[in-house]
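We close this part of the discussion by returning to an individual protein. Part of our work consisted of pairing the sequence of a single chain with a tokenised description of its backbone. What the numbers capture is local backbone geometry rather than side-chain detail. The amino acid sequence and the backbone structure tokens for this protein are reproduced below.
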Amino acid sequence: MDRLPLPLEGITVVAVEQAVSAPFATRQLADLGARVIKVERVDGGDFARGYDTAARGLASHFVWCNRGKESIALDLKDPRGLAVVRRLISDADVFVQNLAQGAAARLGLDAATLCAAHPRLVAVDISGYGASGPYADKRAYDMLVQCEAGLVSVTGTPEQPVKAGIPAADIAAAMYAFSGVLAALVRRGTTGRGGPVEVSMLEALAEWMGHPLHHAMHDGTPPARTGLAHAVIAPYDAYPTADGGRVLLSVQNDREWRRLAEQVLGQPELADDPAYATNAARVAHRDLTDMLVGKALGSLDADEAMTRLEGAGIACARLRDLYEVAEHPQLAARERWREVGTPVGPLRALLPPITLPGGTEARMGDVPALGEHTEALLHAVGMTDEEIAALRRDGVTA
């Protein structure tokens, strides 16, 4: 049977983007078959290209967020560069931008302006705090928004709040921009009209804060910061093993506690002990509960602990470092790794988590060099060799 095509084949996306939120959103579109044209500055391009050199000389953020795209380098402050972008947009289905607040509007590239001129266009504005309100013009970077959205307040230990180890605000905004584009394209299929899509990092991450927000608003107290432990369930934490590993386990109900006591702790009497028999009692006696579990697991190596816990039907996991994740047996067994081309040669990358059985595999395109596709794209919008040479001479393109 013929395989289904990628769902976004035939869709063209133009993106004036930088850093993480917009690039990660448009990378999802590229993975699903869209053609993504990335507009970059002539003087260094997307500034995420310079974050680090960890990916064999390339920036790890950039490699992660920009595969499968075509790069055109333009000076948008020059009317000729801006005119090229307008010509690209006129043939596009989607436009995405995450410039500093107000910058897109000054260029006439904000969603409202573009959708008024191109009714079928889906145009996405990604911002830190939204287009209105007292924070509209406030500069927004991921860790700042993590603080404003309260994520930092519920992450860490009782003594120390900490930021998330990933750019959670950027990722949240990216995924809502991605899903917003898909929803708007579905609407366009039934109405013929695209329309603006607005996503703010604060509002995206505030949505992800739903559990602690509701806990605080309605119960009157925020969940406690408990490190790796769960604030309202015990035992639910990571425990050291005899070989220096750490195993995290989760007991979700009192039946599971009985099995843990009998089959792992070797103390069946704890199943009916009033100090431990219910979750409320175990939370109230968390230190003693953790001591009992820690003593039992501390006498086993990590493999033995996992085998014992799984045999008892207790949910558990290894606390893995990044090198172990890169070699995770589940990812390997499901063949989730591919290689993508980059200016420094092939690099390993994960298939996107959206799997479409019976369809064509996600497009794992190359990571572009800055301006790699400039000349081809300028020719595609009708420019002659002489016009292109003049733009290069004047520094409007690179």
Summary: The longest helix spans residues 168-191. The chain has 17 helices and eleven strands. The longest strand covers residues 35-40. The radius of gyration is 26 Å.
